[in-house]
């Protein structure tokens, strides 16, 4: 059998961002203002700084207003909650993203709960989690929504397919499982206590790996022809003192068996940022009382 098709997340993300930019121009003409996204970073984690910078760049490239807020690593929870209250009340801000993880002195659940659900473009609040699980419109977390877009683009209707999601975090695994269920897949959610994982993965037409362990999913776990979505972002030693990014899937092995597979980098990561732009545009439409007709 020939090698898997490589799903070009970077190209998909560029196409989505171009659509969002068109939508921003139309919104501005109708509403007399541009959508705004506020990104809050607490502390100086270098990887988080890179993500926050690329989110700001993408926001501006889409024609939206970008508001960047930095708090020191030792900032108190009260300081962060006060900033969120200001952003909730600011009519120029349609979306609020607080970069996770947060320093240990800050309770993430309390911070997420403080973000107004209509500005929660990450889709992490209880209100938006509930809406997703009962099938009402709300905000869906960017990473799993980006994965669902890649899957539908590749496979069309997902109804009846067997899917396995490896990982059950609130930001990736659980919402991914909800999205696949909503698309009529038969969904297995695997985690660290799952027995016979390889055997369960072998039954799946769709494999979503969100584990956080480099090369965790092996090629001989993959059913021939399956579609593999690798969410993992792991920085490993590449020898000679350098590092490189790899996913949760042993890419070279899986590629020889799968029907299609996302690379790391250039797969799910760029989609996450493009969907964040899309969610911010949706938030602006809802706030302005305008219908949103885009993707
Ligand atoms: N591309 C992107 O845009 C994004 C990428 N990521 C990346 O995705 C990965 C996952 O992120 P996230 O969901 O936040 O991670 P978490 O650490 O929150 O969750 C990891 C999940 O993997 C499960 N797990 C751990 N070990 C095993 C094992 N041996 N067998 C089966 N399951 C296991 C855990 O199970 P248990 O619950 O039992 O502990 C847990 O549910 C990371 O690499 C992260 O960097 C994350 C967000 C966005
Ligand atoms: N509130 C919140 N929302 C998030 O959505 C969120 C978060 N916190 N904390 C961290 C994770 C991680 N995440 C990524 C986004 C883009 C890439 C991305 O663009 N990756 C590039 C590579 C980037 C590089 O080279 O470092 C790629 O995969 O091609 C990766 C990871 C969003 N997250």
From TrEMBL:
Q: Which EC numbers does the record give? A: 1.5.1.5, 3.5.4.9
Q: What InterPro entries does the annotation carry?
A: Aminoacid_DH-like_N_sf, NAD(P)-bd_dom_sf, THF_DH/CycHdrlase, THF_DH/CycHdrlase_cat_dom, THF_DH/CycHdrlase_CS, THF_DH/CycHdrlase_NAD-bd_dom
Q: How does it assemble?
A: Homodimer.
Whichever gene encodes this chain, its name is: folD
Positions of the Tetrahydrofolate dehydrogenase/cyclohydrolase NAD(P)-binding domain: 141-286
Entry's Gene Ontology molecular function annotations: methenyltetrahydrofolate cyclohydrolase activity; methylenetetrahydrofolate dehydrogenase (NADP+) activity
Give the reaction(s) catalysed: (6R)-5,10-methylene-5,6,7,8-tetrahydrofolate + NADP(+) = (6R)-5,10-methenyltetrahydrofolate + NADPH; (6R)-5,10-methenyltetrahydrofolate + H2O = (6R)-10-formyltetrahydrofolate + H(+)
Tetrahydrofolate dehydrogenase/cyclohydrolase catalytic domain spans which residues? 7-122
User: Which function does this protein serve?
Assistant: Catalyzes the oxidation of 5,10-methylenetetrahydrofolate to 5,10-methenyltetrahydrofolate and then the hydrolysis of 5,10-methenyltetrahydrofolate to 10-formyltetrahydrofolate.
Keywords, ordered alphabetically: Amino-acid biosynthesis, Histidine biosynthesis, Hydrolase, Methionine biosynthesis, Multifunctional enzyme, NADP, One-carbon metabolism, Oxidoreductase, Purine biosynthesis
The answer to keyword Transmembrane applying to this record is no
HAMAP family found in the cross-reference section: THF_DHG_CYH
Q: Where does NADP(+) bind?
A: 167-169, 233
The record's PROSITE patterns line, in alphabetical order, gives:
THF_DHG_CYH_1 (PS00766), THF_DHG_CYH_2 (PS00767)
Protein name (Swiss-Prot/TrEMBL): Bifunctional protein FolD
This protein's pathway: One-carbon metabolism; tetrahydrofolate interconversion
Give the family per the record.
Answer: Belongs to the tetrahydrofolate dehydrogenase/cyclohydrolase family.
């Amino acid at each position: 059998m020939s090698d898997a098709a490589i799903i070009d997340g970077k190209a998909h993300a560029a196409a989505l961002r171009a659509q969002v930019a068109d939508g921003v121009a139309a919104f501005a003409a109708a509403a007399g203002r541009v959508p705004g996204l506020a990104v809050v970073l607490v502390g100086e984690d270098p990887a988080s700084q890179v993500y926050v910078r690329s989110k700001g760049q993408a926001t501006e490239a889409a024609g939206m207003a970008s508001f960047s807020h930095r708090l020191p690593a030792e900032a108190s929870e009260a300081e962060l909650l006060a900033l969120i209250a200001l952003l909730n009340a600011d009519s120029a801000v349609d979306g609020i993203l607080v970069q996770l993880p947060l320093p240990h002195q800050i309770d993430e659940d309390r911070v997420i709960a403080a973000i107004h659900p209509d500005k929660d473009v990450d889709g992490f609040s209880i209100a938006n989690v509930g809406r997703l699980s009962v099938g009402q419109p709300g905000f869906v977390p960017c990473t799993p929504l980006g994965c669902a877009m890649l899957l539908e683009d590749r496979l069309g209707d997902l109804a009846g397919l067997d899917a396995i999601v490896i990982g059950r975090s609130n930001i990736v695994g659980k919402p991914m499982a909800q999205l696949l269920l909503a698309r009529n897949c038969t969904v297995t959610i695997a985690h660290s206590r799952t027995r016979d994982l390889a055997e369960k993965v072998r039954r799946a037409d769709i494999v979503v790996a969100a584990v956080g362990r480099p090369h965790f999913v092996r090629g001989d776990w993959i059913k021939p022809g399956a579609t593999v979505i690798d969410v993992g972002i792991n920085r490993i030693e590449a020898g000679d003192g350098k590092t490189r990014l790899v996913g949760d899937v042993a890419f070279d092995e899986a590629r020889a068996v799968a029907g299609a597979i996302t690379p790391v980098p250039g797969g799910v990561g760029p989609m996450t940022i493009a969907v964040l732009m899309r969610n911010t545009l949706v938030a602006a439409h809802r706030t302005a009382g305008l219908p949103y007709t885009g993707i």
